[in-house]
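Need a sequence for this fold. Nothing fancy.
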């Protein structure tokens, strides 16, 4: 199993008292614990230039107007071949639902640490509450708290989000659970629409990827970034490519998302009416490397909390990730071997710290295992 120093998991610091990320204390502190200080070459840059990504009007795409479909498909194809990021507007998700999701998120993260820890994420798992990644990694810790949970589009899981949240947090979280159940359903529907667009743009027709993800078993993650008195030393989320298939992100009005394109970090400005969409490693494999999963990160600031809601689309656990035959020919032979998503997930949770090389390292490991 690969284990380079930069990808080490929880290790050698058994002598020191355990580090706790209590945002209510740390947000005021100028003395930043060393574990949160990033090496100089990864420290955030002040004032990253704006990254102009295409705005895809999903309203006219979904209306099937051929001119709109052509234009959306051209813009998406161009963006995904280069960096994999675009915005969707006129997406049809009720703005009231988005606003409620943000409000309920505040309610959760404003609880005392001990209350939030009722949903504590366990070692080797990707769901639950995590205050930074203390206990999981010992260097380059993110300046954030997260709450993650599973969503399944399968018919027999229609209350799974709500049930999970009530189980871990108690009956008071029924309404919270209901809002997030609805939010995840809206994200799943939206992602299937985007899959139609990706299918058309790759020339495999609108149904192929939509059908592949119809019974998706996805992950919803709430990112909560408290202010940091030394934002130039820390990162909210370190540089990484999403290992998942497609990410649909809603960021609040604060700003902090940056993408590494043409050798520099660039900022995607907040837009409440839009979702930021990006290709993840699993879709890069499904497209036989044509569409890129691109390095991104989130920076923090000294005065205000920032929130983002990420829906990570993932295939049903038993689906084999393999590109359609139209994308494999004598000029473009298979770039990645077949795999199932749970194996890549386990790889990122147990053996490897997700970064820009995750898919390649995972792919080498699979090939070496089977060869
Ligand atoms: C499968 C997952 C691992 C992560 C959460 C979900 C989807 C994306 C992953 C993540 C966001 C990729 C970047 C690194 C990570 C550690 C993070 O900074 O949050 C990842 C998640 C995780 O393991 O918590
Ligand atoms: O908060 C953000 O803007 C980005 C978060 C992110 O990249 C992630 O959760 O994978
Ligand atoms: Fe990400």
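Here you go.
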């Amino acid at each position: 199993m690969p284990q380079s120093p930069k990808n080490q998991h929880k290790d050698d610091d058994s002598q020191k008292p355990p580090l706790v990320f209590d945002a209510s204390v740390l947000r005021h502190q100028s003395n930043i614990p060393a574990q949160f200080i990033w090496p100089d070459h990864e420290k955030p840059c002040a004032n990253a230039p704006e990254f102009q990504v295409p705005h895809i009007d999903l309203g006219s795409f979904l209306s099937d107007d051929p001119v709109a479909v052509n234009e959306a498909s051209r813009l998406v194809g161009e963006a995904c071949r280069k960096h994999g990021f675009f915005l969707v507007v006129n997406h049809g998700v009720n703005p009231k639902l988005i606003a409620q999701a943000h409000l309920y998120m505040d309610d959760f993260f404003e609880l005392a640490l001990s209350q939030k820890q009722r949903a504590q994420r366990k070692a080797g798992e990707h769901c639950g509450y995590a205050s930074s990644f203390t206990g999981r990694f010992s260097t380059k810790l993110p300046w954030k708290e997260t709450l993650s949970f599973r969503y399944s589009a399968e018919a027999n899981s229609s209350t799974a989000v709500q049930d999970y949240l009530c189980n871990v947090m108690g009956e008071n979280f029924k309404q919270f659970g209901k809002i997030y159940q609805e939010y995840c359903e809206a994200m799943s529907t939206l992602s299937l629409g985007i899959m139609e667009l990706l299918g058309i743009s790759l020339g495999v027709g609108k149904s192929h990827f939509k059908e592949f993800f119809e019974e998706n078993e996805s992950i919803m993650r709430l990112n909560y970034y408290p202010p940091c008195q030394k934002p130039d030393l820390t990162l909210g989320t370190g540089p990484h490519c999403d290992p998942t298939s497609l990410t649909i992100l809603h960021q609040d009005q604060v700003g902090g998302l940056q993408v590494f394109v043409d050798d520099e970090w660039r900022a995607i400005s907040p837009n409440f009416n839009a979702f930021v969409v990006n290709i993840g490693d699993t879709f890069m494999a499904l497209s036989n490397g044509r569409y890129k999963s691109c390095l991104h990160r989130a920076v923090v600031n000294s005065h205000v909390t920032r929130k983002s809601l990420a829906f990570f689309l993932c295939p049903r656990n038993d689906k084999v990730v393999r590109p359609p035959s139209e994308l494999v020919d004598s000029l473009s032979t298979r770039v990645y071997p077949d795999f199932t998503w749970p194996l890549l997930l386990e790889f990122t949770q147990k053996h490897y710290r997700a970064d820009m090389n995750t898919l390649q390292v995972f792919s080498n490991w699979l090939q070496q295992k089977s060869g």
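For context: DSSP finds eleven helices and 14 strands in the chain.
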